[in-house]
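Sharing a chain and its predicted structure for anyone who wants a worked example. Both blocks are below, sequence first, tokens second.
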Amino acid sequence: MAGPIYKLWMMKYTDAWYQLSEEERNDHNAKIQAALAQVGGKMIISCTPAWSSEQWLMFGVEEYPDVDVVQQHTLALYQLNHFRYVESVSMLGIKWPPE
């Protein structure tokens, strides 16, 4: 399937996140952003529904050139131990209707 591929994600932080110092949190976020850019992905929007949702703290949409890049980015997140710090759900989709 040709791209672009869109990823909707929803997340909240785990206790491990809150044990990090502010400097460590900032460093981790910078690495996450760099990993996205390095594989050719980009953040379309990042939002906080905290005022309207008790389940999720943040949600966003990312755009990737193709599925291979999504897989590369997911591997990078695992290598950064990202899923120790967040609980999340996500789904992939394509623009509808297709052009």
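Comments welcome. The longest strand covers residues 5-13.
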